[in-house]
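WARN no homologs supplied; continuing
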Amino acid sequence: MDVTGLALSAYLCFGQPIVGATNGEAIQRYGGLQAIHADGTVTVRLAETGREEKTEGGRHHWIVRYRDEAYPFFLERHVVSYADCSAVETWVEIRHEEEGPVRLVRMDSVAFQLPGRHETVKVMSLTGQWGRENNLFESEAVPGQIVELASRAGTRDAWESNAAMMISLGAGATEREGEVLGVALEWTGTTSRRIRRVWGGATQVFAGVDNASGPYVLDAGKTLVLPRAILVHSQRGKGEVSRQFHRWARLHLLPHGRDLHPVLLNSWEGSYFSFTEKTLTDMMDGVKEMGGE
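OK structure emitted
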């Protein structure tokens, strides 16, 4: 789905609000939405039918509605920004009233083209399995190619490929310097995150559910709510992206995320089955020396 069509890319990269007209046809321009209608037609042409804005405290919520030009097929794009952090939350809701089920071949939560041109684009991700979780890898996305980060390990989201990535726009992005875009999915199932470099320097970004096992069958009258994607833009390196993700999670995702929680001492990694009273008290003393209560 084309976030650029909503001017969200400008919001992310330049801090501007979502304004201007939207071309409904653009929402599937980059291949984020591919559907087979009940009669077998594969063409989807969406036209905007309305917009809604509402503010609840420090939370601003945009809703943009679309309908297919030929079928009773409907889509809503939701975008939420927060006053207390730089993260933007977005998701898509799909429903239809066709005479039979619609098959969704691709249903990305986000699919957009970044504004501007970048000679160098690098993608950083976390991957691994038991005993070697969260290994850090970074590779360059080359023009004319697609870099895909796919996790097909079911609910083991931290295995193989974590459902997040950082995209460095330009050479030399570090923890403290450089332009970086962070993308994370609120989803513990299979995911696919892709970077497509177009000749000429354009960069397209995709993130959503992995449909490798086949199209999703959506019955008439049912609404499919796609996983939410969290996007963070930084001009101050990768560290700022991490901090804004953490801030958003504490303030808007985790139960009691604002509270100070007691420290739990997990003795397993330090002693396994070979523990005594002295082993445990030594561990506790070590925690105290580090400032733990």
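Confidence is low (pLDDT under 50) at residues 1-26.
OK
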